[in-house]
Design brief:
Rossmann fold; mainly alpha; single chain; about 300 residues; four-stranded mixed beta sheet
Length: about 300
């Protein structure tokens, strides 16, 4: 990826033409022209975008809309489509509290397909849009297919098989917990996974947020696990008062934080034993929420 050098005072249309010419001369497959963002219809900026379109004749004209703006995005989409002529929509911040319901209205108003959606801030957080999956998220039904795809992209096959063998025996030590926490971060963190989990109600999601279990707390937990010896991670029962003080000091945390981590491991261990007893048929009948610790599911605090 290469960005074009900007010459002070150069008009937007001239910049766009130079970008397309440079892309052709240097053999680039794709040239992206990103116009100034706006949350409302601005006539001057709209005319500017139309001029850029006429000068470059793009193959795709995509409106990038923020899912958090709700129905305001629908007004902007309608205005852009009328003035510019859209070929598709990119819906961003789908990983936030908004579930993307505005996507349905934008599709109806413009007649243009939602082609991509953003679920994070990095380049790899841009995903293809699948109507049936976003519908499941809007209805609170989760999105198992996207969850599996994320897992397939990030999971180490050897580690997964090792954990599966231990789960069959009902075993789960602190090394295993550390691997799961790292995996969670690779898959977009806790916030990125909550909407994908079937059986995860809004109340359960709010419970996790209120407990302040976020990606920063996961990183603190990993720091505590790194401050333990290999023997302590294999045999958590060895971690008593003096060891707790050493681990907390080494990770820059408090003993209370370590106690919460140990409780989380105990809950996870009980869950693994539950998996062993239920077997595959029991898991399918009860769903993922049946594996959550506590009555009616829910994550440990």
């Amino acid at each position: 990826m290469r960005t074009l050098d900007i010459v002070p005072g150069e008009p937007p249309v001239a910049i766009a033409k130079r970008a397309v010419r440079t892309g052709a001369l240097e053999g680039f497959d794709v040239v992206l022209l990103d116009t100034a963002g706006r949350l409302a219809i601005d006539e001057d900026m709209m005319n500017e975008a139309a001029a850029v379109r006429d000068a470059t004749k793009p193959h795709e004209t995509l409106l990038v809309a923020d899912a958090m703006t709700g129905q305001d995005a629908v007004t902007v989409a309608g205005g852009f489509h009328e003035k510019i002529g859209l070929s598709g929509i990119v819906l961003t911040r789908v990983d936030g509290d908004a579930r993307g319901g505005a996507a349905l209205s934008m599709r109806a108003v413009t007649g243009c397909p939602i082609k991509l959606m953003g679920v994070g801030e990095n380049l790899d957080a841009l995903e293809g849009f699948h109507p049936e999956r976003i519908a499941s998220r809007i209805l609170g039904m989760g999105d198992v297919v996207s969850l599996v795809e994320k897992a397939a992209e990030t999971i180490d096959q050897e580690e997964a098989e090792k954990l599966a063998r231990k789960m069959q025996k009902g075993q789960f030590d602190l090394d295993d917990l550390g691997q799961q926490l790292k995996q969670m971060l690779k898959m977009g963190g806790l916030s990125g996974m909550m909407d994908l989990l079937p059986g995860m109600s809004k109340a359960q999601q709010d419970k996790i947020k209120n407990a302040k279990v976020d990606d920063r707390s996961i990183k603190r937990q990993l720091a505590m696990l790194s401050s333990m010896t290999p023997l302590e991670r294999r045999r958590p029962e060895l971690i008593k008062a003096s060891r707790k003080q050493r681990i907390a000091a080494g990770s820059g945390t408090k003993v209370q934080d370590l106690n919460k981590l140990m409780k989380q491991h105990q809950e996870a261990s009980r869950m693994m034993k539950r998996v062993r007893k239920m077997g595959k048929k029991g898991m399918l009948r009860g769903g993922l929420s049946s594996l959550m610790p506590g009555k009616g599911g829910g994550f440990p605090h």
